[in-house]
Design goal:
Layout (H helix, E strand, L loop, with lengths): L1 H5 L5 H19 L2 H8 L3 H25 L1 H17 L4 H17 L22 H29 L6 H16 L10 H8 L11 H16 L1 H10 L2 H11 L1 H11 L6 H13 L8 H17 L22
Helix pairs in contact: 2-7, 2-8, 4-5, 4-7, 4-12, 4-13, 4-14, 4-15, 5-6, 5-12, 6-12, 7-9, 14-15
Length: 327
């Protein structure tokens, strides 16, 4: 949304220059140890409530899809539900396959004619316009950090993983800078992808969930080579259908985040406030609701957690009545 709103009248080389500035700021963030420590020390109720707020609108879409497109979305949800009972690990891949079949049935094969079957890289020489850097590069850095990197780290902490913030920020910042030269805009810790890969759906054993992450990275390679076909397929599919499959994929992560957010009775109000702000989807000053949810939730937690000390009376307590004396 940020790129779409800022992209009118901007030369692509200027945008690439702004992308490089954003990547450089991410690298600098990785070199700042205090920032990494602050990210990984976000309180658990806030982190879990923020994740729940991010996931909630996506998890609602299967319901919307079934109502608006019952013939297409209905089989997707039914297949997911059946396999979630019989073979939970295959529920989401099967639902995705049914969604692809539904796109072929509804749209035919005409969308293939406009797909670029042979991808190629094209180097873009960046130009740096100070106005574009301030209006696009700096907001992109803030949105990437507040909307993806911070939620990505909090997702990991929700599942008791300790993410290495310095390595993650340095590697994604440098990788993004390389991608910027070919038109890529950012590489970040995707909060939704992290929620899928770090949850129990990836593997019952937390120590073996890295297999799902590695498999996901490997599958990105052929997906990148077939990006033209994949983009054409997604464009031909109803948006609500694609989002519905994503909602089914992160439903387990939503359950876990809600349970963790509400676990401590002392912070339930804080968790609910954080969840509501994030789920509202507000954008203020170009910054998305995850950042504002953490900010408002932190303020509420600090206020409700502050207890005014009760004044202690200095007056002497009355002496207890004397008992009967024995003669």
């Amino acid at each position: 949304m940020l790129l779409a709103s800022a992209g009118r009248g901007i030369h692509f080389s200027d945008a690439v220059g702004a992308f490089l500035v954003s990547s450089a700021l991410i690298v600098l963030s990785g070199l700042w140890p205090a920032l990494g420590r602050a990210i990984v020390r976000i309180p658990r109720p806030l982190a879990s409530a923020m994740l729940a707020g991010v996931l909630f609108p996506i998890c609602v879409t299967p319901i919307t899809a079934v109502v608006t497109l019952p013939l297409l979305a209905g089989p997707v949800v039914i297949v997911w539900l059946v396999l979630y009972r019989l073979a939970p690990r295959w529920a989401v891949p099967a639902a995705m396959l049914v969604a692809v079949i539904a796109v072929f049935v509804s749209a035919g094969t005409g969308w293939l004619s406009g797909a670029a079957l042979t991808p190629h890289l094209e180097l873009v020489v960046p130009t740096f316009d100070p106005f574009i850097v301030l209006s696009l590069g700096l907001p992109l850095f803030i949105v990437t950090m507040a909307g993806q990197n911070v939620p990505g780290f909090t997702v990991l902490s929700t599942y008791d993983y300790v993410g290495p913030p310095r390595f993650a920020l340095l590697s994604t910042g440098l990788g993004a800078a390389a991608a910027n030269l070919f038109g890529g805009h950012a590489i970040n810790l995707g909060a939704i992808t992290a929620a899928i890969m770090s949850g129990p759906e990836a593997h019952p054993d937390p120590a073996r969930r890295w297999i799902a992450t590695l498999t996901n990275g490997i599958l990105y390679l052929p997906l990148g080579l077939g990006a033209g076909v994949a983009a054409a397929l997604v464009s031909a599919a109803p948006t609500v259908l694609i989002t519905a499959v994503a909602g089914l994929a992160v439903l387990g992560a939503l359950v876990t985040s809600v349970v963790n957010a509400m676990e401590d009775p002392r912070h339930r109000i804080t968790a609910v406030v954080t969840f509501l702000v994030v789920a509202s989807g507000i954008v203020v000053l170009g910054i998305g609701s995850p950042f504002w949810g953490l900010l408002v939730g932190g303020i509420v937690m600090a206020w409700l957690g502050w207890v005014r000390p009760r004044p202690t009376s200095t007056a002497a307590s009355p002496a207890p009545p004397a008992g009967p004396t024995r003669p």
